[in-house]
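Model the whole thing, not chain by chain.
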Amino acid sequence: MILRDKPGFMQLAFAVRGSIVPVIAPQVLGLAAFAALVVWADRHLATFPEIEATPFTVFGIALSLFLGFRNNAAYDRWWEARKLWGGLLADLRSFARETELFLASEADRARALRLALAFMHLHRAMARRLPDDATARTAAGRAGLSADGPLPRPCAALDSIATLLANARRDGTLDGYGARALAERLASITLGQAGAERIARTPLPYVYSLLIYRTTYLYCLLLPLALVGPAGWLAPLFVGIVAYVFLGLAEVTEDLAHPFGNTPNALPLDAICRTAEISLAPHLGEEPPQPLAPVDYYLS
Amino acid sequence: MILRDKPGFMQLAFAVRGSIVPVIAPQVLGLAAFAALVVWADRHLATFPEIEATPFTVFGIALSLFLGFRNNAAYDRWWEARKLWGGLLADLRSFARETELFLASEADRARALRLALAFMHLHRAMARRLPDDATARTAAGRAGLSADGPLPRPCAALDSIATLLANARRDGTLDGYGARALAERLASITLGQAGAERIARTPLPYVYSLLIYRTTYLYCLLLPLALVGPAGWLAPLFVGIVAYVFLGLAEVTEDLAHPFGNTPNALPLDAICRTAEISLAPHLGEEPPQPLAPVDYYLS
Amino acid sequence: MILRDKPGFMQLAFAVRGSIVPVIAPQVLGLAAFAALVVWADRHLATFPEIEATPFTVFGIALSLFLGFRNNAAYDRWWEARKLWGGLLADLRSFARETELFLASEADRARALRLALAFMHLHRAMARRLPDDATARTAAGRAGLSADGPLPRPCAALDSIATLLANARRDGTLDGYGARALAERLASITLGQAGAERIARTPLPYVYSLLIYRTTYLYCLLLPLALVGPAGWLAPLFVGIVAYVFLGLAEVTEDLAHPFGNTPNALPLDAICRTAEISLAPHLGEEPPQPLAPVDYYLS
Amino acid sequence: MILRDKPGFMQLAFAVRGSIVPVIAPQVLGLAAFAALVVWADRHLATFPEIEATPFTVFGIALSLFLGFRNNAAYDRWWEARKLWGGLLADLRSFARETELFLASEADRARALRLALAFMHLHRAMARRLPDDATARTAAGRAGLSADGPLPRPCAALDSIATLLANARRDGTLDGYGARALAERLASITLGQAGAERIARTPLPYVYSLLIYRTTYLYCLLLPLALVGPAGWLAPLFVGIVAYVFLGLAEVTEDLAHPFGNTPNALPLDAICRTAEISLAPHLGEEPPQPLAPVDYYLS
Amino acid sequence: MILRDKPGFMQLAFAVRGSIVPVIAPQVLGLAAFAALVVWADRHLATFPEIEATPFTVFGIALSLFLGFRNNAAYDRWWEARKLWGGLLADLRSFARETELFLASEADRARALRLALAFMHLHRAMARRLPDDATARTAAGRAGLSADGPLPRPCAALDSIATLLANARRDGTLDGYGARALAERLASITLGQAGAERIARTPLPYVYSLLIYRTTYLYCLLLPLALVGPAGWLAPLFVGIVAYVFLGLAEVTEDLAHPFGNTPNALPLDAICRTAEISLAPHLGEEPPQPLAPVDYYLS
């Protein structure tokens, strides 16, 4: 995630970090060059039939609406993903307090919290598709999950918590009230995990991407025909601006629709996991680590 | 569900798998041909009165807005359906952990989990309208539900879980805390089931389909009258593009509004059921099966 | 509710069942006739001042947006109503399972389920404003609610369940866990009932209807002035189409905003009540009745 | 709240009750008069420069979108307020049933219900800013809250219920199950109260009002410049219509954004409180009062 | 938060308090001056090529839609933040009532409530980035949290409540029912806190700000080219108005997207904390303080 203040004058003109410009520059320049070619051909080869701009108005507004819809859906995915991870953080904090209240054995408490932290890291590694994440492996090891071979599945950490609770129940160090309270907390974590999995594994329908990119390119390729008459050599500039706005939005949308990726706009899962460690440290009797700070405006 | 990366240049130009083009090609070509006919008639038979493009602007924007509304509603249905199935998956995982915590008898636990898996498959078979699905029949059989005749209703699997719990309660192997916890889990599954049934059985109001398809065809049939003058022989191209955009969106919408169908954009219920089996396998002491993989980009 | 497949070619051209055309035909024809009158007057009496179409563009787009807003709000009401009834169905199923788990007396269980079914029918009769619905009266009678005079209020059925539970509690056939579980279920039903009442008793603000219908008519009455010049005798056709789109959407909206009515687009409350009876039949040891089937595409 | 059927032909033409026309007539007429002045000046003093209508298209559409956004936000406030009050009604009904199930002392039960009714009336009086509402005072008095001085705060009624429950708990007439059930109900009422307070005390950001009204007036004041050429003496009519649509919507929005006011579109809090009294009467062994009926289409 | 009535005529013309005008005046005047320069250059240096206004229509509508989207997202953040703080207020009131019901020791009750109030103030100080807020320090001190060094984290206050409850549980002054009830309340507060943290720490994606401000400036800088012909010396006025509308909305959006800031549109956290103190005073046996009143229409 990029963390910068409201863009000032200089940033507006020159900021590259966090901007979508570097990604779409080739396409924008290509389309502008194509427009220039059309103008040149119109002047030197043969005059194109002049096309009124009105059909392009409808086309452009329809395209804006569809891009707007897809942008909305992508932003909703991004924000829902953030809500789910925020909910997991709250669940971990509540879990720590509820173990204090309901779990009699201090060793059980510590193990349960370490398993919860391991879950967070394993969940993050799976969401980010890091099959051999070192931090997750360490967290899993500290919680007593198998340290060799592939990383355990996040479910394995939660299953271990359930087994721990079942054993405590049988030992009499967890009464019925506590069993219900902690089982509900576990279920809430499970729900948050399933929600994040849903977003990670079910992309926006592919057919939208195809429809919208194809329509955008068609629009930008046909636009010179409408502009060559009224705008002349300014046509490439206008085509470039239109391409910048539409392709820029399409690209941002593509980014936000994958909130667990490694793009500049992806969610700061590392920082959230760190916050969880900070929040649970007092309950484990440990010194809390430092919060993660953005590097070059980027919080990972 | 189609699983492909962001379309690259070649896909944009040529991808057919996951595209809506094959479905709407006949209509698009038909409307373009009609436009060509209008141009030909205008040139060789009798000149049509020239109609200003402005009324078409309003008409086109109104149509875009209504298509946008219907698209929104369809996408919401699709995404809510995915949420409900994701919630069912979470419920099954929590159910497995809670049986470990609250159900004393191991045999009861195993039977309860097998019934839960049978529910998932029966629910899937009903949503997909597969009255004799072999996988669902096997799952029902393993859970001890009647193996002959028509498939049992999904409710039957949940009713059997309730009976199992009531017997355990009477036997004293399930205490009051556990009865409440497991009954709440069952109610949560019931709610998810009812939600998915609602989407499957209550389509978008038919009157919208009629209104929108009629309006779209009217628009595409009248458009040549506005384009014959300014665009000439390019009119069929423009009409084709407009038809592609509007009919394409209408068709995608129709697909997404039925998220449990067998279309390329339908939800991957098979894969979700498989994930449930993988998640419950450790609780049943079984080897988890392999996750389903997409075939030709398609996850069933 | 109309249940038809995606409209094919013939339906698009001729379908009347489920279409809004019969309702708005008089207004549409009237407005087209008025447009024809304007053209005739312009040709034979005195030429009207030509008005540019641009103001109509803004007017038309603003009108589309406001119609779109109202349509959204109406569809949300319709879909929320369906959700609430779906939730009631889920609550009834869970109630049946929870009585099995928590209510010791079989007679109490049967009476509680019959009261729940009576509630559904009384609730339906109130929503549909059927003060003397025979099915509801029968259901109330079977549950032991007063059979004479006006139909009991839906609340009376739920109050009777509460009294039944309180008596069971006092008799010792319902323990504390069960009392909480069943009271929560009752509260969930109560919430669903209040939600449906809210939709039934609080229509969309009347001021919107007035504003939107007045604006739509103003638009259709002024439109001929803008079209008489450029479109000539085609003006009535265009006015008719515009009136069809705008009045059609306004009328559909009016329908969906009253989801408990008797219009073709109203919710199939009869069918939902029947599904509840089917779901509860096994718990009552009865043969489940047949599900309701659509008649002439209409599910009541 | 205005309760009228779908407007028929006569109402469309003449309905004043529930219409926004009387409120905005002065501004609409004023703006139309200004437009007439511009036309007169253009004809008799000096010709204004002709301005193309296109900039007004963008301006008008942008304004429509912003008005649409604010209208959406206002309607959401109105509908959320209605949901919260509907939720309170459901909570009161559930509270009555749960006291029957869990509170052993009949006197406590009656007092608790009277306190709940007093809460509703005090909450209504606070939302409507009626510092000396007679009905609320009576209800508070019947519940044993201080009858003199300023009205008690709604919180005082809920605090008294909590104290009543704490005393019952200490006396042994309320067990742990009941304490949890009734405390959860109280918390649910508290949440509904806080939600309604939020809407009452946090208006839509003032800056929106300023921005939108200023923009609307700017638009209506500049519009004559664009219409004076093409529309001539019809310009005042067009300006009047535009002002009617935009100011009408802005005014309705202003109304709906304050759902607890005394405007025709405000929520019928009196009627909801009466419904609560009707619902609780059987539990208090009283004759239910009559429901409130609309007076001149208006339900208070 | 600015608290003013619906703007009247004088306010519309002159209100500055709560208006966005002072913030954006420099940019608006700068852009208008640039437009004047373009007109002057066009008249005295060399005639610019005339550009049709149509491309600007599409551009302007696309820009309106994107601004509208961002405005929606920002308003949702603002309103969700308000909901979360309203929920915290409700949680505190319920917490007070539940301690009365479930916590036997009066000293524990008082300490728990003081800790809850300290949490509110610490949470507010963190959200507003006031690392040394005097009120928060006092509240923390009164609750027995460390009075020296940096302010304690809000989590510390909640952790202390959990420890207090665990001790009471061990002492036998809190039974299982109460432990569950109060743990759930604590979890609800934790969830509200995490939600507010999410909004405070995860701004709207920076890439949107960049894209929208860049597009807005591009639009306003190119607009004179389209207006210089038809509008002449009125062009600067039009450009100024367009800049006022678009930049004004962008700026308001920027404000609302940071609901915990110190801008005029930020949420009144001080007032909400004061309301919490008023609500809890009777439970602490204290005289409630006065509610905060707006100063110069501003409620902090």
